[in-house]
Amino acid sequence: MDIETVSCKDPFSNPADANHNDTLVSVIVPVYHAKEYIEKTIRSVEAQTFHNWELILVDDCGGDGSLELIQKIKEASPYGGQIRIIQNEKNLGAAMSRNHGVEKATGRYIAFLDADDCWLPTKLEEQLLFMRQKGVGFSFTSYEFGDENAAATGRVVHVPHKLDFRHALSRTVIFTSTVIFDTKIVPKEQIRMPDMPSEDTALWWTILKTGVCAYGMDRALTIYRRPASSLSSDKKSSVKRLWNLLIRVAGCGKIAALFHLIGWAFHATMRRIWFRRITNHIEVWNRVVVLLSDLAETAIATLVYAMYWFRVYYPELESPRISQDGFYFGPGLKLFRRGHVVVLLIYVILVCVLLRSLRGNKAAEQKPGSRFINQVCALVLTDVITYFQLSLMNNWLVPVLPMVRAVLWQALGSLVVSYLTYSIYRGLFSAKEMLLVSGTEDVDSVLSRFSTRSDMYYISRVVNTKKLDENAILQETDLFRNVILWNVTGGLKGRLAKHCYAKGINVYLMPETDDVLVKGTHTLHQFSSSIYLLKNYPMEAEQRIVKRLLDIVLALVFIVLLSPVLAVTTLIVLADGKPLLHPSERVSKNGKQFRMLKFRTVRKVQEDGTLLYIRGGRTLRRSHLDELPQLFNILKGEMSFIGPRPDRLDVYSARCAENPLYACRTKVKAGMIGYTQVYGKYNSSVEERMNLDLEYIQNYSLWLDVQLFIFSFKFFTRADDERQE
After folding, report:
1. For residues 699 and 590, what is the distance between their CA atoms, to the nearest angstrom?
2. Are 715 and 365 in contact (CB under 8 A)?
3. DSSP letters spanning 475-494
């Protein structure tokens, strides 16, 4: 049996000379007086569902027979070729033993595991997937206490989703056996533990001090073997070690060290209170935080309005009503306390309805910037309605500047509430861990989509319906609270959805066309049981009339308001000496062809993929001015403001030949602003974009058009027809 001997004076090997496998994980285990535990630890590595690992066992001259036992395990193990044994020349301690293991490691990833701890079988697979989604080089996970036999006790230590150097000084939650480093991000020469008490914490702080952040995966994948006799640890020694680390490693002064020490005690206490008593009702507390945020937003908006109501508008309404021509319209409005309450209550109801309608109350779903914009849109619309309400009460327009100032103060309050709520929410609730059940092996698209909201979700495990049978998949879903069904078709999709629903598991479905159509049905209660009606006409006659009138009014308003912009753009385009407009044949309602108008531009794609627009020697980035002539298409009735973006004739014909259902997109007029633009992505598949447009058609309402029109100011991007050309 070959055993590598490491001298304590050996220099650190140059990682640039090492042949790193792009996915190989080097597992470093220091072994000292571990004969009683080491076999179970090794078996937990061998049981990993991720098989591309090397196990480096560093014997620290314990002399208890651990080395001989490890040799026997290696000889008998089917993974013996992946197990390497290193023997120190003399006893060096855990820190130097880990350093020697790191020196000999050949993998891209470095994982630590203590000789008496154990991993759950999916530990490496889940944590590497987590690191891949977030693109991070330093990760750690939650862990669970185990008894003398490494049997889980149910006591879990949860971890925050992110730690930088400053926050790590008061949160010693990174447990050694949960850590994995990516040496492409954290250089291998930095992964060296100092020979001092709490050497692991000293290493974390040293790395974090360089600007690297550690990302926590709040999923207990490690069993921390801790006998019952040692559960009451020496807090005095812990405080003393932490104090020395703060002074020697972090470089804190005594006052700063005391501050971080108090923070450490506070966070340790809060972890016990929060995670032991509150996480059992996590959904309830989640909703409580969201409701408190909504109440705060509504309260601020109402208080600001109340201030201007009592200081400006009620005195204005209370004074005698005299027109601009001097006519007397009678005495002013007189309200008692109940009247003021009714006025403010009407305002509160209006704010709540519009915040909900424009998604300004989605604290748990949106990033603070998006939520702030939605809130501002709702508040502006509320104050506009209120302004005209007050003007009607006054029989003449009331002063507008106070209402503008009110909007500005309300927007400032919304900004504070949005970002404060997001900070509190992310501090209290970790990102949701999810199981991805995929019907295809290519899962990069779904991983990339969920990685855009890594603050809210992360996929910790992937199972494929073609590789596992149904019973095995059902057993996997029972281990998670959130499951994604992606490209799962047929009866299996329904059975998985029903199983998860019965178990109280949240299910995220990738909708297929039939799901979209069913969502747009109407329920009939004219029979002994409910029946779903899938209508073949998306709009009622009165809806079509109102929609057309709104298109005409809005098109005229925008043409007038944007006439200076249209004139300047016309001059710039004509300066190129080319035709002003670039008409292209498009398809609108019922497949009818029309010539969609755009300003002509010269386009250029840079090496990095950035699309540039060149006019008259000037270079502009992603201008939307090209689309303005489509206002005249709207006036002519060929397009609408809101509707599926029109395809070129050849593209439309090809897609209809591929999928006849694609023609259903033309049940309504093509739009300048599409549902896909606001809620979807242009790099998604044709089927997904079709489903989004069908969802708009099947669930059509005039209020939906209003919502999309408002959201378009935030989400408006260049239409997909630009990418077809």
Report:
1. 18
2. no
3. HHHTT-SEEEEES--HHHHH
